[in-house]
Design a protein that fits this description.
single chain; mainly alpha
């Protein structure tokens, strides 16, 4: 008898799924992005206007309206906050979208021959499009303000990948649960609201939080938000905190096991409860 081949790991299966279905995956992302603005005159253009206007509002309000000035480390508060808001908005939009992905595409879930595992990735891809525009415009604003581009900018690719992994894993867990318990969607919304303040978007190291900041660092998004900030503003390398990086990826490894287990357990009955 032939020995059974070992099961592919979860990440490998996802990569193969994307390769085999890349055409339909890209079409679903574009359609999902378009569907947000159906009926509007400018259509998909609104998806690019929104992040640009958000950055401009932050810039005008904090720089000229509130005259928030500089932080103790000499960085203008407006750039400190914007560099933290960019990754947080990506994560919050991606997680929220992934959580409702199976319900939003219930007609596809009920198709026996459709790869349901693509649906969370569709929402993730749609959020990523907006994020790229958001990030690009932020770098333009920073460069016009004297924070010129450097090779540290390349680190945003690493931290972007970290956010994608985190959002995909935690999103798959909540999306699988939301099919059975709709209240999960509301809970995720509340967690995202709380998370904005529990993550260093408007605050960061050096403000005297002490032990509380140590506790808040347990939130994986702390690592990603601070990573974007270090890449865009402070020009610090990701290798400068190896133990924290190890902690982040250890948490991702644990989440991947939990997400794969819950999806395999709950997936067979998705169509029956929708």
């Amino acid at each position: 008898m032939k020995k059974s081949m070992p099961k592919q790991n979860h990440i490998h299966r996802i990569v193969n799924l994307l390769k085999e279905n890349r055409k339909i995956y890209c079409e679903l992302i574009i359609n999902d992005f378009k569907s947000r603005y159906n009926g509007s005159f400018l259509g998909m253009i609104w998806g690019f206007i929104q992040p640009i206007v958000t950055i401009l509002i932050y810039w005008l309000v904090f720089q000229y309206g509130l005259k928030s000035g500089e932080r103790p480390d000499g960085v203008p508060y407006v750039f400190f906050m914007i560099s933290g808001a960019v990754p947080w908005f990506f994560f919050s939009e991606a997680w929220g979208g992934i959580t409702t992905s199976f319900l939003d595409y219930s007609y596809l879930v009920k198709k026996l021959n459709f790869k349901v595992g693509l649906l969370p990735l569709v929402k993730l891809g749609s959020a990523w499009i907006v994020h790229i525009v958001f990030l690009a415009f932020t770098t333009v604003v920073l460069n016009f303000s004297g924070y010129y581009a450097s090779w540290y900018y390349l680190q945003t690719v690493y931290y972007m990948f970290a956010i994608i992994i985190f959002a995909a894993l935690i999103g798959l867990i909540t999306a699988s649960l939301a099919v059975y318990i709709r209240d999960v969607i509301q809970v995720v919304g509340i967690i995202i609201q709380i998370g904005f303040w529990a993550t260093p978007v408007c605050w960061g190291g050096g403000i005297g939080l002490g032990f509380l900041e140590t506790v808040l660092k347990c939130n994986p998004m702390y690592y990603c938000v601070e990573g974007y900030r270090k890449s865009l503003v402070y020009r610090q390398g990701f290798w400068e905190e190896p133990l924290y990086a190890l902690y982040f990826w250890a948490v991702m490894a644990a989440l991947s096991v939990l997400a794969a287990y819950m999806y395999r357990k709950l997936r067979p009955n998705f169509a029956d409860v929708m």
